[in-house]
Amino acid sequence: YQIANQMYALVKDSSELYPAAQINIALNYERMDRLPEALATLEKLSKRKENRYDALITKGDLLRMRNQYEQAVAVYSQVIGLVPKLEEEHWPLLFSRGASYERMNR
């Protein structure tokens, strides 16, 4: 994973592939049990000019997979607040938030 991250890091931030490379870096950090670095990478990506819902959704997913349900709900709710209008295509986001609530017995 470390070597893959070194390769992903070569993608320039001006490239249209940069967001996908950063998400893959974060996923690799998580696989290396480096969750704080994964979350920081996703948070940084989410703050770029364009709306990076995918970075925040991935952050929520990583938190949910680590049983950090309250934090996951907060991130999913943040994304829902950023989406101009919820559409049918957003069902995975709503499902993930609902699953997190369910795991918290709420």
Task: Note down, in words, how this protein is organized.
The protein is mostly helical. The model has no long low-confidence stretch (mean pLDDT 95). It has helices at 2-8, 18-31, 35-46, 53-65, 69-82, 91-103. The chain is 69% helix and 0% strand. Helix 2 (18-31) packs antiparallel against helix 3 (35-46), helix 3 runs antiparallel to helix 4 and helix 5 (69-82) packs antiparallel against helix 6.
Record keyword descriptors for this entry.
106 residues; mainly alpha
Largest sheet data: none
User: Which descriptor suits the 3D outline?
Assistant: globular
What's the helical proportion of residues? 55-70%
H/E series: HHHHHH
What would you call the structural class? mainly alpha
Number of strands: 0
How is the secondary structure organized here?
Blueprint lengths: L1 H7 L9 H14 L3 H12 L6 H13 L3 H14 L8 H13 L3
Short structural description:
With 106 residues, this protein is an all-alpha fold. The chain contains six helices and no strands.
